[in-house]
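# step 3/5: fold
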Amino acid sequence: MQVVAVDDRTLQVTLKAPNPEWPRYPGHPALAPRRADLPFGAVSNGPFVLAGSGAGGLRLERNPYYWNRSAVQLDAVTYHVEPDPYQALRLFQLGHLHLVLLPADLAAQVPGAQAMAQPATMGLVFNAGQPRLAHSGLRTAIALALDVQRLTAEAVGEAGLPALTLVPPSLGGGWPPAEAVSGGAPGEAGAHGLWSQGSLVGELLSGALPGAELQEARRLWGEARAELGLDRVTLTLLHAEEAGALAGAVKRSLEERLDGLTVELHTVPFAQRLERVRFGQFDLVLQGWVADHDDPMALLAPFTTAHPGNAARWVSADYDALVAAAGAAAGSGRAAVLRQAEQLLLSEAPVVPVYHPLRHWAVRPELEGMQVRPLGARFDLRQARLAVAPPG
């Protein structure tokens, strides 16, 4: 990509290759322009400007130079930093806060609390560069044996949405009616994305009866062990300390369902875990992917052969070709190619998606018109307003 400043108000962008999704990218903070001759940071223009900040929070005031300033109805917005979620909830219930972010367990206690899938996925990565795990049948057997519904319920609870696709439902399109709007009808859960959750396994198994996934897993597991000449298989699973519950649930699920499999859990600090993954010193690792822009490609491209983020060391010329084709396609054609790429990725199973993290929040009824999106300005206050209660 090449960027040229034509004049004080115009940037000319030249892309390496055609990208129909490009118009959605310039709003990302990483692309905010910065003049080398100005002493302050990046130039931006939003509905509010910073009026003050401190350890306890910050205050924003309406920006008189915003291009659509007549549509902004709030004069000021104050953000409070409250490390204690119980205290934050108390302040909300007392009416001192109009919006509060909550952990899942507290959100369950608040009538009308809302949730949205974050543009992220947590899952299991196989080291396909390791001789045993280079066998796609062995990987697929393990993938089919994992009950992501049960894993999520046991280890994550209301903080996660079970995932049967790598691309979360919060990427790739509008969450009807394009976003969640406080004071209006909420969007249909799971509607934000290219395809619906749960569709992939059903397609791979051609509408098979319940339990067929486990039967197929055991069949593939037996065939793979026979072809590899293995009576028993022991695999190490690297995980962070905070992912211990999920790692334990993965271990129990796999050892219960696949005879001859032992999963050894290794709690590894973040920096050391990154180093071991980088050099291929692992069998399995629990890992997360977070999209930095609203495009399924953000999660699919890292599994191409030459991508530095291909922790699985998986090589597929067919997958590479599909991702390359999607890069030059547009509209429904692009979505169809991306879908094919994800189906190939999950059928070959270098990665097993487990859950999509959920963000929970609560809004007081007098705050209307706030839009909620999975990326960018997650709580968009451009059209927000405080309703005036009628006289009693």
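# step 4/5: annotate
The longest strand covers residues 351-363.
# step 5/5: archive (pending)
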